[in-house]
Automatic annotation (TrEMBL):
Domain of life: Bacteria
E.C. code: 4.3.1.3
Pathway: Amino-acid degradation; L-histidine degradation into L-glutamate; N-formimidoyl-L-glutamate from L-histidine: step 1/3
GO molecular function terms listed in the Swiss-Prot or TrEMBL record: histidine ammonia-lyase activity
UniProt protein name: Histidine ammonia-lyase
Keywords: Histidine metabolism, Lyase
Family: Belongs to the PAL/histidase family.
Enzyme class at the top of the EC tree: lyase
Keyword Transport: no
Catalytic activity reported: L-histidine = trans-urocanate + NH4(+)
Gene assigned in the entry: hutH
Length: 520
């Protein structure tokens, strides 16, 4: 499980940000400051760029055009216009508005790169960018516009536009207003971008990396929750916990598998329902279905994949992504570090494992509803089967989301559409990978919620047998948010929404841990 960030302020510049810090700033609005050493690096790098402004040798981003126009020399008197034109023309996003937490993550990560002293922006430009984040002046960024190469160009351009006093913003999650109005209200003045600054503001992998950090945080919680829901399904379906024994799991020493099995053992510990069918003479089943028996293997593989993705994220968080970059010895050099391939790959990988975890969860839900497989429970867990349909359509809802998740698992990173007159002839589509992963993570949380809801009802129908202490704590926590007990048919949507809130709000994990102690 992730731990809460134990600080009231995140400091940029002394070391790379962590995944937890990105989430804290993006999602929980923890304040940000920039270290004195970082400000000195920014000033030093800017002096290098200004020293090149009059150079007779062409320098990309300083005295040339961009992309396929990089060979065109730009005279000094047009260079401010060059930067303005770059940002305006690249602010070409379209489609739905991107969520505030994604935009905040994107802004934070661009600020971190600007603070490395490798981009050449001026101090006043960076201070204004930091002020936007602090004041919750959130640029309106759109769903479509990034190919994940040369950076997340359109999303970052919509942010850069606000520094110029142009474009649209939401202030503190309120209505959309003009950027100039929002800056004035906050007592801030727009900047005129000078040599290299427009390029430095838009040439990064910040959007896709921000979405990766948020997904890692979400999936760590959801995989622990999936262990809980799987354990509840094993309990409610009269399955066995013997297969989760530590020595059996150690025969296949994947770390995530061991952690998942340990969680399931803890949740099932002390279950009177489990104790009721330990006698081999009374229980003739030899093995449970794969969706029960193999839960640690699938959840564990997903967990290991998330941690691999976290390793990639940590490496990217230590990067200074811009082109060209200002080197410590004063050179300004072109490079290809803006290519989003490494991030795109793991974003796609996470969508695959999320879909598989959801697929297994839905199969456990379905077992509860089939009297041929649920070992004595009524069809669809209905109060009066035939008159009542019970949870029949809840399973349809889960199945529909799982089907969508399987489509979202098709990788974006294997696609490439050349751009910029074939100068940018291979792109990562990492932004698209991040957008579809967010939809997949949301669906996973809902599918797991439906399993929890179903398992809670199935366990209730085992009365007078009582559940394990951890299971009982989870059911009690869900009951506080809405009825999860059996009864005549009623509208399910509000109850499923309440369970979903308990999943994403970490209420389910907290309830289980009140009985088990810390879970993995």
């Amino acid at each position: 499980m992730t731990t809460q960030l134990e600080t009231s302020t995140v400091t940029i510049g002394d070391r790379p940000l962590t995944v937890e810090e990105v989430v804290a700033v993006a999602r929980h609005r923890v304040p940000v400051e920039i270290s004195d050493a970082a400000w000195e690096r920014v000033r030093t790098a800017r002096a290098v760029v200004e020293g090149l402004a009059e150079d007779s040798v062409a320098h990309y981003g300083v005295s040339t055009g961009f992309g396929a126009l990089a060979t065109k020399h730009i005279p000094h008197e047009k260079r401010a216009q060059l930067q303005r034109s770059l940002v305006r023309s690249h602010a070409a996003g379209t489609g739905p508005e991107v969520e505030e937490e994604v935009v905040r993550a994107l802004m934070l990560l661009r600020i971190q790169t600007l603070a490395t002293g490798r981009t050449g922006v001026r101090e006043e430009t960076l201070r204004l960018y930091l002020a936007l984040l602090t004041e919750r002046i959130n640029p309106v960024v759109h769903e479509f516009g990034s190919l994940g190469c040369s950076g997340d160009l359109a999303p970052l351009s919509h942010c850069a536009l606000v520094l110029m006093g142009e474009g649209s913003v939401r202030v503190a999650g309120g209505d959309v207003v003009d950027a100039a109005q929002a800056l004035a209200t906050a007592g801030l003045a727009p900047v005129e971008l000078l040599e290299k600054e427009g390029l430095a503001l838009i040439n990064g992998t910040d959007g896709m990396l921000g979405m990766l950090c948020l997904a890692i945080d979400d999936l760590r919680t959801l995989l622990t929750t999936a262990d809980i829901s799987a354990a509840m399904s094993v309990e409610g379906l009269l399955g066995t916990d013997d297969v989760f024994a530590a020595d059996l799991q150690a025969l296949r020493p994947h770390p995530g598998q061991a952690l998942a099995a340990e969680n399931m053992r803890k949740v099932l510990a002390g279950s009177p329902i489990r104790d009721s069918h330990r006698d081999p003479a009374a229980c003739t089943r030899v093995q449970d279905a794969y969706s029960l028996r193999c839960s640690p293997q699938v959840h564990g593989g997903a967990r290991d994949t998330v941690e691999y993705a976290a390793t990639v994220a940590a490496q990217e968080l230590a990067a200074a992504v811009d082109n060209p970059v200002v080197t410590p010895d004063g050179r300004v050099e072109s490079n290809g570090n803006f290519h989003g391939g490494p991030i795109a790959y793991v974003l796609d990988f996470l969508a695959i494992v999320a879909a598989d975890v959801a697929s297994m969860s839905e199969r456990r839900t379905d077992r509860f509803l089939d009297p041929a497989r649920n070992h004595g429970l009524p069809p669809f867990l209905a109060h009066d089967p035939g008159v009542d349909s019970g949870l029949m359509i809840a399973q349809y809802t889960a199945a529909g989301m799982v089907s969508e998740m399987k489509r979202l698992a098709a990788p974006a990173s294997v696609d490439s559409i050349p751009s910029s007159a074939m100068q940018e002839d291979h792109v990562s589509m990492g932004w698209g990978a991040g957008r579809k992963l967010r939809r997949s993570v949301d669906a996973l949380s809902r599918v797991i919620g439906i399993e929890l809801y179903t398992a809670a009802r199935g366990i209730a129908l085992r009365a007078p047998l009582r559940p394990a202490p951890a299971t009982g704590a989870v059911i009690a926590a869900l009951a506080e948010r809405g009825s999860v007990v059996p009864g005549p048919d009623r509208m399910l949507s509000p109850e499923l929404a309440a369970v979903h809130d308990a999943v994403v709000g970490r209420t389910v994990v907290a309830a289980a841990e009140s009985a088990t102690g810390p879970l993995n």
